[in-house]
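Researcher: Please predict.
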Amino acid sequence: MNLLERIKKLPEDWKRIITVAKKPDKDTFSMYLKVTLIVMAFVGLLAYLIQLVLAFII
């Protein structure tokens, strides 16, 4: 499949994805939000701790 055929097929693929996808309910959305925020906070804390350790080493 060449590039032009793939580009022509994109709207059809997007339409299929949108028809299959469904909007999450409030509980599912809040769970995803909490998990995302916890992971972001963890990664930020980890990055800060690494930066702090490296600042004292160097």
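Model: The chain has a mean pLDDT of 93.
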